[in-house]
Amino acid sequence: MSMKPIRKLTALLLSGAMVLSLAACGTDTGDTSPAPTGSASAEPQTYTATAKGYGGDVTVTLTVTGATVDSILVEGPNETEAIGGAAITGFNETLAAYEGQGVDQVAVVDTVSGATFTSTAVQNALKDVLAQATGTEATGEKTPVADSTATYQAPGNSVTSQVSVEVTLKDNRIEAITVGDNSETAEILQTVIDNLIPRIIETQSLAVDAISGATVSSNAVKSCVAQAIDANGGDSSEWYTPVEKKTDVVTLEGYDVIVVGLGGAGVTAYISAAENGATVFGIETAGKIGGTSANVSGPMAINPQTKMDSQNGGEKFLEEEDLIADWLEYCNGEAKEDIVREFVNESGETMDWLINDYGFQFGDISAFFHPKMWKVWASYQGNKTDMFTSAVDKAKAMNEKNDYMLELTATDLITDGDKITGVKAVSWDGTTYEIYGDSVILATGGFLGNSEMTEEYMGGTFTADAMLQNDGAGIQMALAQGAATYNIGMPGMVHIAQTKTIIKNDDLTADQKAVLTGMVLSPESMIVGTDGTRFMSEAGNIAFDNWMGGDTYYAIYSQAQIDSFKTSGMLSPGTPMFLAQGGAVEANTPITDLDTILSVGESYGIVVKADTMEELAGKLGVDAAALTQSAADYTSYAKGEAEDPFGKDTAMMSTLEEGPFYAIVGAGYYYGTCGGLDINADMQVLKTDGTAFDNLYAVGQDSMGVLFCEEKAYVTYGGAAQGWVITSGRLAGANAAAAFAG
Predict the structure, then answer these.
(1) Is 129:50 a contact under the CB 8 Å cutoff?
(2) Closest by alpha carbon to 492, among 533, 531, 528, 457?
(3) Pairs from 643-651 (Cβ < 8 Å, separation ≥ 24)
(4) Could you give the C-alpha distances from 410 to 262, 413, 425, 444, in angstroms and in order?
(5) pTM above 0.85, yes or no
(6) DSSP state letter for 4
(7) Which of 687, 729, 738 is nearest to 704 (CA)?
(8) I need a surface site. Which of 105, 451, 594, 726 has the fewest CB within 10 A?
(9) 548 near 646, Cβ under 8 Å?
């Protein structure tokens, strides 16, 4: 990736763009007493500054002796590994060149393609530490911005088109922000329109927090506003004035049930507890109800009476015992039989309950991808967010004390001795809430959004097609109280594969993007995982089986194959089930612009080229001996000298003897984690000694590992996770209400 300095520090100091207050960058400067580098001090001095990146704080630390740079380090532990994390690695490589040079020679690094927010954070924090080191006075004034109304674009969550935003600037203020054409999920984007935009206008700051559950859409809007400021004579880095947070503490008492998380599991827990007479308080980090459940297709439901009546003449679709036996056999005896049995037998009733009592709509019961093709799955029909929200509001109205709050994040369980008495949570505005109740139901959606947890338990940082507010908060709160886990290291849910980074802007056309997608899914490649070895037949189902290769996989081609694609096309370009970008690749059709496509892919880090297999291994960070041996073995299979252990047809194989070689970087896009807390059939969380907490429950992805096996993937009957989500929530809500009734 190419990064060029965009301007020298001296130019920044002489321009109005440098009048950036230390506070305005949201920085933590620490002790500002050391003398600036212009003084005679020969002692090393360290300066730090922090700015908001894509996923959280990005920190720059500058150490100088006299006027000489000792080191510059950029850190952003919460940035995405493939995009922001890769950009930070590049920034550190660039800034390392300034070691031993005068601090006045340091230049602010350029923006990296696809990592705008991370880049901006690094730029802002770097300006700050340089200003500290040189003793520059900051006035806090902003560079004047011309009046303007214009439309700008930035990549959002959609993979098919960018977000268009009209921005009006007037009298050196952000006057109006209006979202225009986009392909974002409407309900998610609406939380940005309702919450983020008014906060930007009120505070006149781009440092307002992204809306949880809508981070990417939030960042798209902020990016467009920054573009507007820069395009009209201003400097957007000056508009990151920190937003003051409240320090109030509010106490709420007297609840029977506190539900932490209002995704699908939390919603059914909330309404079940309420209809069984409990007073209920709900906590939700995101700006809307529904969580990941509002984005999935639908749940498993075994023989719901409503669907048997309307679809099957009142007859069952399958025998429950047949499914239970198959499920337990697949899980090698690791799944908890009593809970599997309870789930299967209660799932149909859950669907009936949602249809009859809360107006949910589902399509016909149908089969999914499982070889048995049992009819167990039904898709949601209509607006899922509206259905979940309507159900919670109906339950809230069952008791005048019932309530819930959005953009409220639980941080700790409150205890009195060994008894759990409530939940501590922090609102988006900084207010701390201490909520007391007789029982707590954890429904925080697993831990896919927490890279430290996925590294610890699953051995990687996984790409997500889910809500990243699902950061393991519920699991961590329970672990802090001595809870046990069950199959927490098992593979997550994945039915999608794509390039590790999806190019969302216009650097390539839709058809060109489809070429990169096709190459990362094509059976014509040799695919290896993070250990440099093959793990499946490339002609198999990479969308479902990529988990076996780790958090990343690599589709490898020779130069001869690339040249053939240019003149004759691909025999069988891969096509994604989901996350398609609107383009197409025709088989046997020359890809004459392939060099251009690969070059752009290189700039995004999803195409890696090397002259030898050893060099390629080094660039990918995989074991060179393993990759070299994999290529040699694969070549022998292609030549017919040995039989491929995965049974791939040699017609789809090419030798990998002569370089250069290309690796297209792919990844599975996960719906969520599977393993979590250990529970019993009442949904109560179990302690490490096997006894149950009297008043702590875990549902949905916080406890789904009890259904599975750590060595195998999530089952593919169809909708098992979503079925567990809504069924476990219903059961836990009723159990929690009954435990403290009267």
Answers:
(1) no
(2) 457
(3) 644/537, 646/534, 646/536, 646/537, 646/540, 647/537, 648/523, 648/537, 648/538, 648/539, 649/539, 651/571
(4) 12, 8, 4, 9
(5) yes
(6) -
(7) 729
(8) 105
(9) no
- pLDDT value for 137: 61
The H or E element that residue 449 is part of is none
For residue 718, give the nearest of 323, 131, 211 by alpha carbon.
Answer: 323
| Torsion angle of C-alpha atoms 569, 572, 576, 579, degrees rounded to 10 | 0
CA angle 288–291–294, rounded 5-degree value: 95
Rg of the chain's alpha carbons, rounded to an integer? 27
CA distances from 192 to 151, 173, 214, 505 (A): 17, 20, 7, 20
CA distance 336 to 356: 30
* DSSP-derived secondary structure letter, 467: -
Which residues lie across from 704 on neighbouring strands?
none
Model pLDDT, residue 84: 82
Q: Give the separation between CA 387 and CA 263, rounded to whole angstroms.
A: 12
Measure CA of the first residue to CA of the last residue in the chain; give whole Å.
65
- Look up residue 418 and give its DSSP letter: T
Phi, psi angle pair for 382, to nearest 5°: 90, -170
Joined together, the tokens standing for residue 39 give 């003084």
The answer to whether 693 and 420 are in contact (CB under 8 A) is yes
Under a CB-based contact definition with an 8 Å cutoff, are residues 60 and 87 in contact?
A: no
Query: Which residues on adjacent β-strands are paired with residue 45?
Result: 64
How many residues are present in the chain? Answer: 742
Written as one letter, the residue type at 542 is I
Query: Virtual CA dihedral for 186, 187, 189, 191, nearest 10 degrees?
Result: 160
Q: How far apart are CA 720 and CA 531, in angstroms?
A: 30
The number of beta carbons lying within 10 Å of the beta carbon of residue 400 is: 8
Asked if 284 and 262 count as a contact pair (C-beta separation under 8 A), the reply is yes
φ/ψ (deg, to 5) at 626: -65, -45
DSSP string, 66-126: TTEEEEEEEE-TTS-IIIIIHHHHHHHHHHGGGTTSBGGG-EEPPPPTT-HHHHHHHHHHH
Per-residue pLDDT at 41: 55
| Both tokens assigned to 306 | 């409503």
Mean pLDDT of the chain: 92
CB 211 within 8 A of CB 157: no
Contact 323, 374 (CB under 8 A): yes
- Name the one residue in this structure whose structure tokens are 């093709």: 373
Residues 6+ apart with CB under 8 A from 212: 285, 286, 287, 407, 409, 428, 469
Q: Which residues of the chain have pLDDT under 70?
A: 1-41, 82, 113-114, 137-140, 742
Whole-angstrom distance, CA of residue 138 vs CA of residue 25: 11
Q: What are phi and psi of 549, to 5 degrees?
A: -90, -5
Give pLDDT tens digits for 635-661: 999 999 999 999 999 999 999 999 999
Q: What residues contact residue 45 under an 8 Å CB cut-off, 6+ apart?
A: 34, 35, 37, 63, 64, 65, 133
C-alpha–C-alpha distance, residues 337 and 328, integer Å: 7
CB atoms within 10 A of CB 417: 6
Angle between helix 624-638 and helix 613-620 axes, rounded to 10 deg: 130
Are the CB atoms for 268 and 261 separated by under 8 Å? no
CA angle in degrees (0–180, nearest 5) for 364-546-637: 125
Give the pair of three-digit tokens for residue 302.
């075994």
> Is 167 in a helix, a strand, or coil?
strand
* Calpha distance 545→322 (Å, rounded): 25
Strands (E), 339-444: 403-405, 408-416, 419-427, 432-442
Could you read off the pLDDT of 492-537 as tens digits, one per residue? 999 999 999 999 999 999 999 999 999 999 999 999 999 999 999 9
Task: Give the pair of three-digit tokens for residue 564.
Answer: 């053939």
Token pair listed for 726: 């809504």
